[in-house]
Amino acid sequence: MALLTILEFPDERLRTVAKPIAEFDAALQTRIDDMFETMYAAPGIGLAATQVDDHRQLIVMDVSENKDQPLVVINPKIVEREGVQTYQEGCLSVPGIFADVDRADHIVVECLDRHGQPQRIAASGLLAVCIQHEMDHLAGKVFVDYLSPLKRQMVQRKLDKRRRQAA
Ligand code: K1U
Ligand code: ZN
Q1: How far is the centre of ligand 1, averaged over its atoms, from the C-alpha of 70 (Å)?
Q2: Which residue of 30, 71, 109, 146 has the lowest C-beta tally within 10 Å?
Q3: What is the widest separation between alpha-carbon atoms in the chain?
């Protein structure tokens, strides 16, 4: 297995719109395993292929406390949504920044598993937040896009300062 490099905001490659997956071959299985390794090491609760510069509709997630419930979501479509919840989100592509985002409280997602089998996921709470956050990545969107221009400018300054200090 291998640790993959996570793209960081404002990298333009995070704006790429992902394409559906049609081939469920050995290379895809390796990519999924590498994404799980990268996500658990970060640590994170989700990772979209976009974030590792792979522009296919592929997401890995694990919102369980013991990190023992891996979930693979391929070619997702939200077919039902209900209610609103606000959650303070983070993002591995925007390190150290957290902000409240409003999302649907309950969603139903139709997608494929790692072997191309159809699955239907009914999600609420953190799982619903995480799926919507990761699906945004597949559409080329980052959670800071929901912030006001002023707040987004503050985020950019914070990231610039941190990068200057790290250099
Ligand atoms: O997509 C990503 O960048 C991953 C992101 C997912 C996410 C987190 C919170 C709300 C919505 C989506 C993360 O995993 S950020 C890290 C994080 O939230 C976390 C890390 C360790 C333990 C618990 C949470
Ligand atoms: Zn993210």
Answers
A1: 14
A2: 30
A3: 47
Beta bridge partners of 107: 81, 123
Q: Which is it for strands 99-112 and 118-124: parallel, antiparallel or unpaired?
A: antiparallel
Q: Is 149 in the pocket of ligand 1 (CB under 6 A)?
A: no
- DSSP-assigned letter for residue 71: E
Alpha helices in the chain (DSSP H): 26-41, 125-138, 149-166
Minimum CA distance residue for ligand 1 atom 8: 90
SS3 category, 144: helix
For 123-145, write each residue's pLDDT tens digit.
999 999 999 999 999 999 999 99
- Token code pair at residue 36: 């799980």
> Is the full-model pTM beyond 0.90?
yes
In this structure, which amino acid lies at residue 85?
Q
